[in-house]
Amino acid sequence: MNEAPRILLAVAGLTVLAVLGSAAIAFVQARYKREQNGATEDGSMLDRMRAMVRRGEMSQEEFDAVRTNMAQRAVTRKTTGPSALPDRPRATRTGDGLRAPSGFDLTGAPLPTPQPGDPTGETNEQDNEDPEGPATRGTT
Hints:
This protein has 4 helices and 2 strands. The chain is mainly alpha-helical. It has a two-stranded antiparallel ribbon. Helix 2 (42-55) packs antiparallel against helix 3 (60-80). It is flat. The relative contact order is 0.04. The model has no long low-confidence stretch (mean pLDDT 76).
């Protein structure tokens, strides 16, 4: 019976080693994949480009142009995404489907206002007809 605790301790130790080994392998694989795929985030991309400037592979002017472009894209993403307009009216679900509030589309964006002379903004000819008929229109 003296050997039962020793065997249990050995199995527990091997289990811990197996878990730690698996974690180490997963870490190395993830790092390898990141290196193979290149930089996926703007910050790491900038770090790589700074290193290119230090090595002389890229001029400072090129780096500044890329950095400005990345900053503009980041600002555009923050101001045009769905989360940029949280106060938009929401569509409601009815028995027939989705219904947008009057004057808005299903995304909550305002509908365009018709411009004078725009054929898509004009009403149907039947809507403009005089209820008394065409003979009385324009005569007084």
